[in-house]
Model the fold of this input.
Amino acid sequence: MFSEGDDVYIKKYMGNSLEPDKNKIYKIEHIFSFCHSGHGTLFEKKAIFNNGRVQLIYTYDMFTKERIFYVDKIPYYKTWFCCI
Done:
């Protein structure tokens, strides 16, 4: 899943679907514990990025078992090759 130090893209709505915005790479500095959002059976996971922004990583609905991701993890080899 996600861990501190991972490089990620933030997903944005492109039309009707969530797509990663590949213009900016963020690094996860801290991940908060899983918390209840206050809306029925919906739980959410948040993180702090290297720019100081608190971002929603994903939501999970206990009733429908649906998980929606709001960030996209970048494989380590893509960040390694861009620096060569």
Observations:
- Residues 76-81 form the longest helix (6 residues).
- The chain has a mean pLDDT of 84.
- The first strand starts at residue 7 and ends at 14.
- The helical segments are 76-81.
